[in-house]
Give the backbone structure.
Amino acid sequence: MLDQSKGGRFGGKVAIVTGASLDPSIGRATAERLAREGASVVINGRNEGPLRETERALQEAGLAVTCVVGSAGEKETAKRLVAAARDEYGCLDFVVNTVGGNRFLGSPREMSREDLLGTIELNTWGAVALVQEAIEGGLAEGGGAVVNVSSGTVYKTTPKMIAYAAAKSALNAITRTLARDLASLGIRVNAVAPGLTRTAGTREIWEPDDGAEAARNLLLGRLTEAEDIANACVFLLSDDARQITGQIIDVDAGNHLMGGGWTPMTDETIQGRIR
């Protein structure tokens, strides 16, 4: 076990970060930032190869990181994540839920019941299941904190993103309600809502012009990076945010200020899933 109890503002703290296997990704950036500031981190992803590679890279950088392979939507995965935090590092202080996605991309007139409910489940149940297990595993013992990754899509009425927008709206409601419910346990719950972010999952959208179109359409004139989202997540976990709970913070280069906002997901340019 790597003793980081004296180093960094998260020294002695233990975090679970889901969706942390791909590079770049919000999960990996958040896990690395936490670890570089002293935390021990349990990372998770569905695909063993990329997850093991992330674990190896971070460990070679001298960081206290271990991985648990599995789908974040399965209760058994949540149990194993919490067990790994307790067994490897002795406690659990933080949970960061970054897993999400869109299981339907098309006209609302063509959407099936399975399309809608599957997308809502993907973006909500894993987060709820992990928080439940984390509480059982001692998250409240030191006054824990949870950050969920939502989306700026909730501000838009992009027809082809109807299922995803509904799912992230549900996650926002879950975030606020958990914040109220868990406050008596000393647990804070917040969310970060990215706009289009430079990640492996959105590569087909930004890679052709290296994000130039997105930059032109955003108030701050630059595409959001995974590290920008990680910075907000880490702030919300820190003592600097000790009086903040039940909030959804937009990290989108000001896109939420622009009425319906800019989106690359038009009828003519449907290129993949976005967060």
Q: What stands out?
A: The first helix runs from residue 26 to 36. The domain at 14-257 is CATH 3.40.50.720 (Rossmann fold). The radius of gyration is 18 Å. Helices lie at 26-36, 48-60, 75-89, 113-136, 162-182, 203-206, 212-217, 226-237.
